[in-house]
Amino acid sequence: MEFETTFYQKFPKDFRWGTATAAYQIEGAVSEDGRGPSIWDTFSHTPGKTLHAENGDVACDHYHRFDQDFDLLLSLGITDYRLSTAWSRIYPQGHGRSNPQGVAFYDRLIDALLERGITPAVTLYHWDLPEALEASGGWRSRDTAFYFRDYAAFMFQKYGDRVKLWITHNEPWCTTFLGHLMGEHAPGLRDAKMARAAGHHVLLSHGLAVDAFRGLSNVGEIGITLNLNTVYANSDSDADQGAQDWADTMSNRIFLDPLFKGQYAALTDAIVAPADPDLIRSDDMAVISRPIDFLGVNYYSYSVVAGDPAAITTAGVRDVTPHDEVTDMNWPVKAAGLSDLLQRIARDYTSIPLMVTENGAAYADRKIEDRVADADRVSYLRRHIEALAVALDAGVDLRGYYLWSFMDNFEWAFGYSKRFGIVYLDYETQRRIPKDSAYWYRNLIREFHQVQS
Ligand code: IFM
């Protein structure tokens, strides 16, 4: 047994054990069947933006291999799968005329999952904004929020008979900070005012999509996914507590507060930039904080911070996180950060169901013969899944866990250098090789169902 019987019994009977991926990271086929370019095509083809100038042109070639990939998922007993759809396959220009071939592709893909008894959870935006919309101001423009609503409404109507779990956005933090403030993600901007506008319009687009969803019947449940990071103060001192307040707002409250409290956290202006006078319009906060059915939580790492007046460039906040155990991303590991985070959300923000929509780790995996012995990943996963049980014990309404990622894929600015998958990708041949962690996860799911039946 991977875990004791009593351990499995802590989870609800219908707990979702899944894996997650995203369109640009796996699909490839960027110029096929009428797909319009997205900001990630532009960004990854701009010299200096991604490691080794790598891009998602081919990626895992999932566009042509999804049947084989879903056979593999099924053989691993994984019954839930989180994917994202590429907006520019549906609307090559971002709005206007939809693309029948793109629509047909997701028809085939969703049907292929359902035929195998795998439940899809669909994320509508995982960072690949149609380039045509970027040209007219991207997320800095209010219009983009309404174009997103229209795209979302189309998707609900088209696939809502088969897809019952919808996620509007993946990690608005990354769109806002990495894309518009730090320049590390598409569209590669470094402008605080623009970041403030982009973050607001992403949230607004989420709320507008929720409204569109509520206007339809029998389409299931809708939520949003945030990347959250448990922030601990180094001590009880006022300085360290102040640093924690700042870092926690920057990582967590920045999106949790508007979504669940209908207002921006007090430090938002200081952390990003004050909002322009006409940015936040009268009804916006009410739209942004519309009730949702679940919150998706992506958790990878944590931080410990101390107050330090000498840390001028980071607003007096010094990162003192121990790096005794890190993943290949150099992200410090702390599984208790996940249980603390889930309990904190339930305590401070909402009693709606939570789902861990991403958790996992990159390691420098080696394929020897036909085996990838990724004991470090198994250890990471085991401890984080134990943390789920701690949260459940504490009364958190947790409904699912989607491991990131099903297979190695395009890790954005890091290109193909970071391997998060439980399935190894030989990019030369496009062979898929389940790692030891895939078999470990298969056993866990099998045992869970045995105990629960
Ligand atoms: O690969 C990403 C994913 O696209 C979003 N969440 C974090 C993952 C690992 O960096």
What's the topology here?
Blueprint lengths: L4 H4 L7 E5 L2 H4 L12 H6 L17 H14 L4 E5 L2 H4 L9 H16 L3 E7 L5 H5 L6 H18 L5 E6 L1 H10 L10 H23 L6 E13 L4 H24 L6 H4 L12 H5 L5 E14 L9 E3 L16 H13 L5 E5 L8 E2 L2 E2 L2 H19 L4 E7 L18 E4 L4 E4 L1 H17 L1
Parallel strand pairs: 1-2, 1-11, 2-3, 3-4, 4-5, 5-6, 6-8, 8-11
Antiparallel strand pairs: 6-7, 9-10, 12-13
The protein binds 5-hydroxymethyl-3,4-dihydroxypiperidine (IFM).
What ligand molecules are bound, each kind once? 5-hydroxymethyl-3,4-dihydroxypiperidine
Largest sheet: 8 strands, parallel, barrel
CATH superfamily: Glycosidases
CATH fold call: TIM Barrel
The tally of strands reads 13
Radius of gyration: 21 Å
> Structural class from helices and strands?
alpha/beta
Can you count the helices? 16
Tell me the distance between the termini. Answer: 16 Å
Strand content: 15-25%
Under the CATH scheme, the architecture is Alpha-Beta Barrel
Helix percent band: 40-55%
Using the alpha-carbon principal axes, give the shape: globular
Residue runs with pLDDT of under 50 for 5 or more positions: none
Mean pLDDT: 98
What is the CATH level 1 assignment?
Alpha Beta
Number of domains: 1
Q: What is the strand arrangement across the widest sheet?
A: 1-2-3-4-5-6-8-11
Order of helices and strands: HEHHHEHHEHHEHHEHHHEEHEEEHEEEH
